[in-house]
Q: What sequence folds into this?
């Protein structure tokens, strides 16, 4: 099924070449079905690449989606022009009176800073607070997951001795959980980060469930029991060559960095890469959209606040 994106978005042209169905707003308005309204807060520096990665995964759903992009106005982007941001991205002031079925908060290359040292942290906190009553379910990715866990639940992050980079095996803990339906017992997913959240800290939060873990990479997937917040510490949206680009970029800059684990064939950066996480990524996004957004969000998004009150009162069924 199609996804609706802003007119002229460069990622749309690239996706159409892959035979992914992308439609403009005018065509979508002439259909009787109500699309799901999604907001993507894209904190990654290479915004066009991240747009393409996320839209590709979202397009695998049989649901019609209308996607908008959000930027942090308190941050000056170094890798994306202001003209591009003004054309394709909205400020928080432009969306704060809207309601959305779902939201994605991406990672950001700022994990070695304390959260409060990030220049857009106060603005991000406003967005995360707003999401609790204006978005039905929010998917947080990598640093976005660490930021969400810290802001909403006080879960700290810890600096790792060295960068965790590679593709790692994970095991699921609750096979019957809606987010994990159709998963194999073990699956692979990429990670690229300098910090971690710890299982012992998350287990102290009664509202949270840990759903998938890795011996090497730690907690991978956690969710609020009410389904309103999902936290993914890895980067399942990454393309085949994303980790390679990061590795060779760091090498070129003279940054001490190890070869990403389980990524290049024979762990040799001169050889090609093998992708083994695409099916898991598609299934995770499809499950989130279906079971945590489409199946639960009210038809009239104006009713979101009422549902939030019901959740607070404990009258809605947990996921």
A:
């Amino acid at each position: 099924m199609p996804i609706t994106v802003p007119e002229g978005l460069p990622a749309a042209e690239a996706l159409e070449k892959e035979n992914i169905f992308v439609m403009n707003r005018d065509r979508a308005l002439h259909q009787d079905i109500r699309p799901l309204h999604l907001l993507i807060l894209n904190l990654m520096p290479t915004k066009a690449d991240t747009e393409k990665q996320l839209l590709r995964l979202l397009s695998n759903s049989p649901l019609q989606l209308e996607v908008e992009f959000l930027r942090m106005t308190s941050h000056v982007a170094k890798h994306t022009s202001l003209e591009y941001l003004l054309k394709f991205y909205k400020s928080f002031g432009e969306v704060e009176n809207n309601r959305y079925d779902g939201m994605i908060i991406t990672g950001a290359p700022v994990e070695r800073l304390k959260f409060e040292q990030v220049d857009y942290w106060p603005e991000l906190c406003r967005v995360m607070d707003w999401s609790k009553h204006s978005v039905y379910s929010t998917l947080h990715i990598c640093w976005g997951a660490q930021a969400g866990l810290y802001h909403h639940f006080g879960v700290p992050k810890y600096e790792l001795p060295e960068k965790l980079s590679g593709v790692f095996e994970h095991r699921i803990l609750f096979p019957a959980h809606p987010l994990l339906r159709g998963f194999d017992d073990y699956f692979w997913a990429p990670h690229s980060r300098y910090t971690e959240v710890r299982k012992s800290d998350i287990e102290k939060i009664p509202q949270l469930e840990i759903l998938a873990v890795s011996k090497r990479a730690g907690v991978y997937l956690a969710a609020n029991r009410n389904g309103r917040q999902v936290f993914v510490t890895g980067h399942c949206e990454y393309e085949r060559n994303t980790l390679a680009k990061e590795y060779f970029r760091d090498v070129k800059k003279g940054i001490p960095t190890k070869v990403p684990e389980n990524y290049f064939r024979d762990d040799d950066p001169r050889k090609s890469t093998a992708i083994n996480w695409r099916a898991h990524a598609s299934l995770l996004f499809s499950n989130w959209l279906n079971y945590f957004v489409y199946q639960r969000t009210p038809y009239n998004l104006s009713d979101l606040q009422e549902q939030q009150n019901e959740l607070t009162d404990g009258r809605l069924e947990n996921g």
Notes: The domain at 3-302 is CATH 3.40.50.880 (Rossmann fold). Residues 278-294 form the longest helix (17 residues). The chain is about 30% helix and 25% strand. Confidence is low (pLDDT under 50) at residues 313-319.
